């Protein structure tokens, strides 16, 4: 990395490189890199993220910034042979945001800075094109008015629509210079009316205000929402790129476009992108005018096309990845305006990673880092059944894959409102813009009638993993009347169900049934990656998963409570069961035995209830040990409060009252009601549950231990290999564990004597209370393993009741930035994680061979898996469906750690 002077706030494009994204932002670093490669980049300079952070922290720009900008502007003017905004030969510049991480459309850009009532005449003479000059001027006032001055953008759109209507034309390209002069005059009136001031004529004032607006755009609501969604830190700030203007709106020999070195939707190699003649860059990404496929540029301007293809090849080889490129052609001269490693769909990520390995550009370790668990989870979602009877009503561009079904909504507010009420919705717009981000996040999928694969809707949807179909031109979207009309005249009203296929671009009315994804079928063993007819995507997933399994240190187990789940988990690659919740075995018809246990007045009645439960529990474990033969099965003894197995107190009270009123027999219900009242707790999750139950209710835990031991003996007699582990829940002190352990060891010894089978059952505990974590060194004296119950540990560390807080105030905490993500979704490393680390170290200090795992929901969360690898746990356990994700992330964590060590 280059040496950086902390006091320097501005860098010329010739001074930076692609490794300086922290300082120059992604856009600035890559503009510098392309300049270094000798590619045609318009000259310019970058104001650093450090300047932005000073501005955001203090409310004013660094005192040195103005002088630095002036010095670089002078150098740019000398290089270009013209001055910013001068009347006869004006230099114009763009002012564009550029953060470290791509945030498409979230922050601000202003083009054509330097135009004024005087310089527009000079630009017209310079270009010998009066229409172009006035078109550029109206664009400046429109963008500057909305972005910098805060004028409602629809006022400008309405004025432009009125101008087109007056001339009876459909496109702004059909307006001549005279028309555009009138538009400019109207735009200036709009600015004066909305702000109380005239549009600024001083070019340096324009530039300074635009720079300040870009700084401020870092903290707009939409930018903050996007960062929360994408888990981008809020303290990075944005760089600002000041670049000499090149013009794609000079006529038919000019234009602008966006290109990808590979298809970002599928990963296939080819010519992918959009091009728009006689346009500036914002026209393409805004989706206001429908573009032509990039391949058509070859027939429009072959010289520029050939040069672009060569540059794209150079950039992909240099970056060793799919590149997303913005370019402009000015009268046959190609200019590169941006490149970055492009966003892609989940399927494209896996395909591209393996393609690059085959091409020798990256190795398997790097390919593993190019994909992630969230992408793999997307690939496991169902897809539409191709054989279903469907009513297709349109087709657009397959912008982001997936099968999305929901009720049609036509604005972001409704999408959010309905989604919060539990409705699944499809957001339908003519085109989206950054203000639609709330609705895009809330929706199952996005459908637009305009735009292409590089439009705002497509780029943002791909980044979020949302299904998206763009540019469905045959569908007429009327957002004011909240309806969509198909080419055949079918009207889709708000609330009607629609289905969109982001893999094919097809749009259907009604709910289309779904079928399992081929990736799930592969994990289930119904599709073999080596078969001739294997899906290309499946082969890519297989190759990367195989490498992840070879390099990972963390083992992956399943949370499973029955043989069916255990068998599926094993097919998905589980290396055992990390959590079998025995309370799930007490439901249904078995609830009656628990009721008898609770109602028992004598030891004999209690023993009778436990005796009835024993064979049922035993059979459960027999089936489980068979399904997981040869692999460890960690069985958690009964954990929840006993009142959960009893009838609802209100229902039972009503039943007893009615029976008494009708003078009907109700003795059993009355006893039940008394038991419910007796067991009622104000905060049951911190009450009589877990190990406390085993200590208070004689025989409960020993019955369960006997069932486990007898089932293991039966499996061993059948020449199986049962590897049972007994886990005591909610332990807070070693004395609790010692008492239960002593009783358990006696039962296991009795069963071994009775059956003649040598039984080696490990005994351990969950660490799910802060006190257990703090005293883990003591607890390890009596525990052969720890399993961190991070669900309860999160509740008890934070003082949260999960069922209550997520619904009541978590949304506000996320919106205010208190949480970047829910601590129940991704582990809180600083709080809960610190206790996990402390307990792991203390446990190993006492018992070096202690086995350490985690069985909370965090065991299947990608980011949390990396943390568990870092602190040295032996395994994670998660739901069967998340096992492939955990396997992949465990491999990525190991490869990442190895890469860090080698550096």
Helicity level: 40-55%
Report the strand count.
33
Q: Note the gap between the termini.
A: 14 Å
Main pleated sheet = 8 strands, mixed
Give the low-pLDDT segments.
Answer: 1-5
The proportion of strand residues reads 15-25%
Count up the helices: 36
Using only CA atoms, what is the Rg? 33 Å
**Overall pLDDT, averaged?**
89
Bulk shape: elongated
List the strand order in the largest sheet.
Answer: 14-24-23-16-17-18-19-15
- Which secondary-structure class do the elements indicate? alpha/beta
Summed up, what is this model?
With 903 residues, this protein is α/β, with parallel strands linked by helices. The model is unreliable at 1-5 (pLDDT under 50).
Written overview of the protein:
The structure is a single chain. The protein is an alpha/beta fold. 46% of the residues lie in helices and 17% in strands. The strands form 7 sheets. An 8-stranded mixed sheet has the order 14-24-23-16-17-18-19-15. The chain has an 8-stranded parallel beta barrel with strand order 26-27-28-29-30-31-32-33, surrounded by 6 helices. Strand 29 (723-728), helix 28 and strand 30 (762-767) form a beta-alpha-beta unit. Helix 20 (536-551) crosses helix 36. The relative contact order is 0.06.
Features:
disordered N terminus, alpha/beta, 8-stranded mixed β-sheet, 903 residues, single chain, 8-stranded parallel beta barrel, 36 helices, 33 strands
Annotate the secondary structure layout.
Elements: E1 10-12, H1 21-36, E2 44-47, H2 49-58, H3 65-80, E3 83-84, E4 90-91, E5 93-99, E6 109-113, H4 119-127, H5 130-147, H6 153-167, H7 177-195, H8 203-217, H9 221-230, E7 238-244, E8 255-262, E9 269-277, H10 281-285, E10 292-293, H11 297-300, H12 302-319, E11 323-330, E12 333-341, H13 346-358, H14 364-369, H15 373-379, E13 383-384, E14 391-395, E15 397-400, E16 403-409, H16 412-420, E17 425-429, H17 437-442, E18 445-448, H18 456-464, E19 467-470, E20 476-478, E21 483-485, E22 491-493, E23 497-501, E24 506-509, E25 514-515, H19 518-523, H20 536-551, E26 555-559, H21 563-571, E27 577-581, H22 591-599, H23 603-627, E28 632-636, H24 649-661, H25 667-679, H26 691-696, H27 700-717, E29 723-728, H28 734-755, E30 762-767, H29 770-774, H30 776-779, E31 785-788, H31 790-798, H32 802-808, H33 810-815, H34 832-846, E32 851-854, H35 862-870, E33 875-878, H36 883-902
Helix pairs in contact: 4-5, 5-7, 6-7, 13-20, 15-36, 20-36, 21-23, 22-23, 23-27, 24-25, 27-28, 35-36
């Amino acid at each position: 990395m280059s040496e950086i002077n902390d006091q320097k706030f501005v860098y010329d494009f010739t001074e930076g490189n692609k490794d300086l994204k922290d300082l120059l932002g992604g856009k600035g670093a890559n503009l510098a890199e392309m300049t270094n490669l000798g590619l045609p980049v318009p000259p310019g300079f970058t104001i650093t993220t450090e300047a932005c952070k000073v501005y955001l922290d203090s409310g004013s720009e660094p005192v040195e910034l103005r002088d630095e900008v002036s010095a670089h502007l002078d150098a740019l003017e000398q290089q270009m042979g013209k001055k910013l905004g001068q009347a006869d030969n004006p230099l114009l510049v763009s002012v564009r945001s550029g953060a470290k991480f791509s945030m498409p459309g979230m922050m601000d850009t202003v083009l054509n800075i330097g135009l004024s009532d005087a310089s527009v005449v000079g630009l017209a003479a310079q270009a010998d094109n009066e229409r172009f000059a006035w078109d550029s001027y109206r664009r400046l006032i429109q963008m500057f008015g909305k972005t910098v001055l805060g004028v409602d953008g629809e006022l400008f759109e309405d004025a432009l629509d009125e101008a087109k209507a007056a001339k009876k034309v459909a496109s702004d390209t059909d307006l001549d210079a005279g028309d555009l002069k009138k538009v400019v005059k109207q735009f200036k009136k709009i600015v004066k009316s909305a702000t109380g001031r005239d549009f600024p004529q001083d070019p340096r004032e324009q530039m300074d205000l635009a720079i300040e607006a870009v700084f401020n755009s870092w903290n707009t609501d939409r930018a903050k929402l996007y960062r929360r969604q994408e888990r981008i830190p809020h303290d990075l700030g944005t760089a600002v790129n000041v670049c000499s203007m090149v013009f794609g709106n000079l006529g038919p020999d000019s234009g602008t476009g966006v290109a990808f070195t590979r298809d970002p939707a599928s990963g296939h190699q080819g010519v992918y992108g959009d091009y728009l003649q006689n346009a500036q860059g914002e026209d393409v990404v805004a989706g206001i005018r429908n573009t032509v496929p990039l391949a058509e540029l070859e027939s429009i301007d072959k010289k520029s096309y050939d040069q672009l293809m060569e540059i794209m090849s150079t950039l992909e080889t240099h970056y060793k990845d799919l590149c997303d490129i913005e370019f402009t052609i000015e009268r046959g001269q190609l200019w590169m305006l941006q490149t970055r490693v492009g966003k892609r769909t989940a399927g494209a990520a896996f395909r591209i990673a393996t393609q690059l390995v085959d091409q020798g550009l990256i190795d398997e370790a790097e390919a593993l880092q190019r994909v992630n668990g969230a992408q793999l989870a997307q690939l496991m979602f169902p897809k539409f059944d191709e054989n279903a009877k469907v009513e297709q009503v349109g087709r657009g561009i397959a912008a982001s894959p997936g099968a999305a079904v929901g009720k049609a909504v036509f604005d972001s507010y409704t999408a959010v409102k309905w989604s919060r009420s539990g409705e699944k919705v499809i957001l339908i717009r003519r085109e989206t813009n950054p203000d639609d981000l709330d609705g895009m996040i809330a929706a199952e999928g996005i459908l637009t009638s305009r735009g292409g694969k590089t439009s705002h809707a497509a780029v943002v949807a791909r980044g979020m993993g949302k299904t998206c179909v763009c540019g469905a031109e045959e569908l007429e979207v009327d957002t004011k009347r909240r309806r969509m009309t198909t080419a055949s005249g079918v009207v889709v009203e708000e609330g009607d169900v629609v289905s969109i296929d982001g893999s094919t671009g097809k749009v259907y009315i009604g709910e289309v049934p779904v079928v399992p994804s081929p990736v799930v079928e592969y994990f289930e063993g119904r599709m073999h990656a080596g078969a001739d007819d294997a899906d290309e995507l499946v082969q890519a997933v297989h190759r990367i998963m195989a490498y992840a399994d070879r390099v990972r240190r963390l083992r992956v187990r399943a949370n499973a409570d029955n043989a069916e789940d255990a068998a599926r988990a094993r097919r998905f690659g589980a290396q055992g069961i990390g959590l079998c919740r025995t309370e799930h075995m007490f439901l249904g018809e078995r609830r009656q035995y628990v009721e008898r246990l609770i109602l028992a007045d004598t030891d004999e009645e209690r023993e009778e209830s436990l005796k009835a439960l024993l064979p049922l529990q035993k059979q459960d474990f027999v089936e489980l040990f068979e399904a997981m033969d040869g692999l460890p099965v960690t069985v958690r003894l009964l954990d929840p409060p006993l009142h959960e197995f009893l009838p609802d107190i209100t229902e039972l009270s009503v039943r007893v009252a009615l029976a008494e009123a009708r003078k009907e027999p109700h003795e059993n219900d009355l006893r039940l009601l008394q038991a419910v009242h007796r067991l009622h707790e104000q905060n049951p999750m911190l009450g009589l549950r877990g190990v406390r139950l085993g200590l208070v209710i004689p025989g409960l835990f020993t019955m369960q231990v006997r069932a486990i031991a007898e089932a293991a003996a039966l499996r061993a007699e059948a020449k199986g290999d049962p590897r049972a582990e007994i886990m005591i829940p909610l332990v807070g002190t070693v004395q609790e564990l010692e008492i239960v352990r002593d009783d358990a060891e006696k039962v296991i010894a009795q069963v071994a004597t009775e059956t003649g089978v040598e039984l080696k059952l490990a005994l351990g505990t969950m660490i799910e209370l802060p006190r257990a974590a703090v005293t883990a060194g003591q607890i390890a004296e009596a525990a052969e393993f720890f399993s961190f119950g991070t669900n309860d540990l999160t509740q008890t560390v934070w003082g949260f009741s999960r069922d209550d807080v997520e619904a009541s105030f978590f949304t506000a905490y996320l919106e205010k930035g208190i949480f970047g993500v829910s601590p129940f979704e991704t582990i809180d490393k600083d709080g809960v994680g610190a206790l996990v680390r402390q307990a792991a170290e203390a446990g190993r200090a006492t018992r070096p061979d202690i086995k350490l795992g985690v069985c909370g929901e965090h065991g299947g969360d990608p980011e949390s898996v990396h943390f568990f690898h870092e602190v040295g746990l032996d395994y994670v356990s998660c739901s069967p469906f998340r096992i492939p994700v955990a396997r992949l992330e465990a491999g990525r964590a190991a490869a990442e750690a190895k890469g860090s060590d080698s550096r």
